[in-house]
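Deliverable D5.2: sample structural annotation.
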Amino acid sequence: MERICLITETGGYGGSEIHTSTLVRFLNARGIAVELISCRNDVYDDLLPADGMATLTKTSLSTGCCEADELRRWRGLLEGVGCRTVLLVKGWWKMGSLPFLRELRQSFERVVFVEHALPEPMPPRSSRRFLGVIPGLGLWWYRMRRQRGLRYRYPDLVVAVSGAVAGQLTGNGYCPPEKVRVVTNGIDCRRYRHDAVQRKLLRERYGVGEGQTLFGMVTRFDEMKGVDLAIEAFHRVSRETDALLLLVGSGKLEESLKEMVRELGLSGRVIFAGQQREVWPFYSAFDIFVMPSINEAIGLSLLEAMAAECLPVVSSAGEMPSVVEGIGQVVEVEALREELPAAMIEASRLDAAVKEERRRLAKERVFERYNMEHSYAAFASLIASL
């Protein structure tokens, strides 16, 4: 039986973790056993199938290590895996130090990167002027691009979960185009549907009145997701409407976000629902889904929300503008602090007939373009063909 190794390191439960656990199931269904190495977290304890086709190994080691002792421990762990192929699931672009990546290359015949986040773009090229007149060569820019591209010497294949990620990897010169394949994220469209019963139950549970607008987020609480920006924006929105904001998730910023809500006097208007294993009912409760991410490939929770007929308000990060084109509001990442409140208010004040039509379009778009059956099957076939 073919076996492959997946290595993941994450700050909490989110889109890349959902993607990874679902991919494991699809690989298992094709007769491929999986050894999942989870670094410094317990996220996958209850997510993997219990049929023996997937094995979970938890370690305190980090993929960002550079110390010789840690690298030796990694070497011993990887030698015991017994797989020819490894998938490094990258929840952020710079995951994996160069010494760690060299260990992967030496331990496996085939190395695959799974890129879930947009890479940092190259800064504008500039140079000093000698004698105030003669332009320099700007060698610092070429050194930076070379340094950033070093990590892409190690994989045989780079799988990007959106065209935006692939475009930035190749467009910035970090990764050769021939190494990159795009397999767009997808969701279980049978599961994420609007449910009127769940809507009524959850809105009653959280004290949402009839006709009261409920903004919502389902996300990991870290800097990349822009939860603080959503709370700031809602502070201004709350002055003009009686809306509520419901936050589903957890993460390293949770306590600071709760403190922020208290300081803004929003304790009765912003609700923290905590981490939820079953998030699909919450989408039915939301009227408007907010996703002001600073860095996002495509956003699984955005797709889930749209499948459940939520109206989206998103940032311009990654592929989200094309996902919501003609359906939702888009705010440029650089302008989120200033313009997000107006976008949220605009979405809440749309004519009822317009809202109904956009909800229908949101559902149709996800069902047509982002169906999990096609996405994960293509991913599993790609890995199986290596």
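Annotation notes: Residues 3-186+372-384 form a domain with the Rossmann fold fold (CATH 3.40.50.2000). The two ends are 15 Å apart (CA to CA).
The annotation will be released with the project's public dataset once the embargo ends.
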